[in-house]
Each structure stands twice: as C-alpha cells, then as structure tokens.
Design a protein that fits this description.
It is a single chain. This protein has one domain: Up-down Bundle (Four Helix Bundle (Hemerythrin (Met), subunit A)), CATH 1.20.120.1760. Helices cover 80% and strands 0% of the residues. The chain contains 9 helices and no strands. The longest helix has 31 residues.
Length: 200
C-alpha cells in the first residue's frame, strides 16, 4: 500500500526522467524485465554459494527493475498487453526465487514455502479479480511492493545471522498473505454480488 503509492509516484515521474533516457538509448521495457528476472535468478545461486550478503543487493536490484520497466514502456510508447503479461509472469517467478534463496540461506523451508504459496495466491486473487472487472489495486495489507521490501530486510537479517528473527518476519509475511487473500476475495465478492452485480 505505502510502497504501492510510491511505485505509482515513480511510474508518473520515471517516464519523463529515467524512462525517456533509457528509451532514447534504445533500451526496451522487456529488456529491463528480463534483466530483473536474470538478477533474481542469481539469488538462490548466491545463497547456495553462501554469498549471503549478496542476497539483499540482488533482491533490491531486481525489485527496482520491476518498478521501472513499465515506466520505460510508457515513455517509449511501446506498452502492450503481452509485455504486461511477461512482466506479471516474471514477478511470480522472482517471488519464488526470493523465497527459495532465503530457504537455502537458512530460513525454515516450511515457513518459506507457506509464505511463497500465499504470496502467489495474493497475486492470483488480484489478476483474477481484475479479469472479472474488479479494481484491485491497493486492496490488501501486503501487496507485492511491500513484500519485496520485507524480503529485502529478511535477507539482511539472515546475513547478520539473525535467522530466528528472519523466520518470524517470514511467518508474518505468510500470515499477512492469508489476510490479503481474504481481503481481496471479499472485495471481489462485494463487487460482483453487491447492488451493481445484482442489477445485471
């Protein structure tokens, strides 16, 4: 929510600053999406190699790529449905890679898997709701932007050797994921079965 508003602000400013500069340099939005995905793929590798301090850097760089790819698409006038599809798909893969890396780095695997599952459900609830014509942006306690920031902080905790604290934070992420899924489900139910939905 807070980071979602920050992302919206960046998306308004980036086309006139970063977006236009990158577009003039010939950089395409898809390139940025693929770079972000490639960077995220380094996370489990770094964890496996015990380069734990690389995890926060990898997560934040990958997250930044996700923020600016859409801005570049709008600035260059190349935004298209398939680009949005690729961006959404890469976001899901990146989320899984973050949780996998944290599990390899020492976060309890069951907690990480649970958090990852509900994170995917959060994203699915939004995409399905929007497919049904319901505005879902800003609905729920833990959108993806906030989740990426929290995982960045968890990576720092793990790097500092504070795995117990990291486990607690990831468990909270899982719990907030459950709450967000419920919130989004209720929002869709209200939109589809409320007065507007009954009038059709």
């Amino acid at each position: 929510m807070v980071l979602g508003r920050l992302r919206n602000l960046v998306n308004r400013l980036a086309p006139s600053i970063i977006g236009r500069a990158l577009a003039r340099a010939g950089v395409k939005a898809d390139h940025i999406t693929y770079i972000g995905l490639a960077v995220a793929a380094l996370a489990p590798v770094a964890a496996w190699l015990r380069a734990i301090w690389a995890l926060p850097v990898i997560i934040i760089i990958s997250g930044v790529m996700d923020v600016i790819d859409g801005a570049v698409a709008r600035a260059s006038g190349t935004a298209r449905p398939f680009g949005s599809f690729i961006d959404s798909m890469s976001d899901r893969v990146e989320d899984f890679l973050y949780f996998l890396a944290l599990a390899i780095a020492g976060i309890n695997a069951l907690i990480a898997l649970t958090a990852a599952a509900f994170s995917l459900m959060v994203s699915y609830a939004r995409s399905k709701g929007e497919l049904l014509g319901v505005k879902m942006e800003g609905v729920g306690l833990l959108e993806r932007s906030e989740r990426v920031l929290v995982l960045f902080l968890v990576a720092i905790l793990v790097a500092l050797g504070l795995r117990l604290v990291g486990n607690i934070v990831v468990a909270i992420v899982a719990a907030l994921g459950v709450v967000t899924v419920v919130q989004r489900s209720l929002t869709v139910k209200k939109a589809l079965e409320g007065p507007a939905g009954q009038s059709t």
